[in-house]
Design goal:
The protein is α/β, with parallel strands linked by helices and 199 residues long. The protein is built from nine helices and five strands, in the order H-E-H-E-H-H-H-E-H-E-H-H-E-H.
């Protein structure tokens, strides 16, 4: 089975009012892949970080600098809970959002979580292109990233689905997500859809 053979209308219908929620470490491709996935499925794409910035009228870096991480996380929980009520959509969350038990519960109730799993080297090559990551503004960003991955991966693994975010064209990752969603949502509707992976 290929991503092109998946009935996307049926897939979106099976999703109902739920949101597809992308989780994972910074640099795993939640925004870039999420936009393409939303376009493919005919859904709205929403970036939780952008919505937080709009609600606070500040950048995330400014929120961290002025109020600290705890304040930011509290606002993040509230914004994501609000966004989840506006589904169906493709929702990209910040790297630390899924660490909140309250947020995980909200997502489980009103969404389908997909962990975009990425290796350290791929994530670092992507985040180096942007200097807007407050958690990496220190003398050893790679060490920080390694520590974050070690802390967060066991929690990301609680997501309903996992898709490998490799250094391949974004459309290839979107194909993999479509197949994974089809397997999850349409299984039992006309037989099992086999898992496939990008080689």
């Amino acid at each position: 089975m290929t991503a092109q053979s998946v009935d996307l209308a049926r897939l979106v219908q099976a999703l109902g009012r739920r949101s597809i929620v992308l989780v994972g470490i910074m640099g795993c491709g939640k925004s870039t892949v999420g936009k393409r996935l939303a376009h493919r499925l005919g859904l709205e794409f929403v970036d939780a970080d952008s919505e937080i910035e709009r609600a606070a009228n500040m950048t995330i870096s400014e929120i961290f600098a002025e109020h600290g991480e705890d304040y930011f996380r509290s606002g993040e929980e509230r914004v994501i809970a609000r966004l989840l009520r506006e589904g169906p959509q493709v929702l990209a969350t910040g790297g630390g959002a899924f660490m909140s038990e309250a947020t995980r519960t909200e997502i489980a109730g009103q969404g389908l979580s997909i962990w975009l799993k990425v290796d350290l080297d791929t994530a670092m090559s992507r985040v180096r292109r942007r200097a807007t990551r407050p958690l990496l503004r220190n003398p050893d960003p790679e060490g920080t990233m390694r520590k974050l991955l070690a802390e967060r991966e066991p929690v990301y693994a609680m997501a309903a689905m996992t898709v490998q975010s490799r250094d391949v064209p974004h459309e290839a990752v979107v194909d993999q997500i479509v197949l994974t969603l089809a397997d999850h949502l349409l299984q039992g509707e006309g037989g099992s859809l086999s898992k496939t992976s990008i080689s």
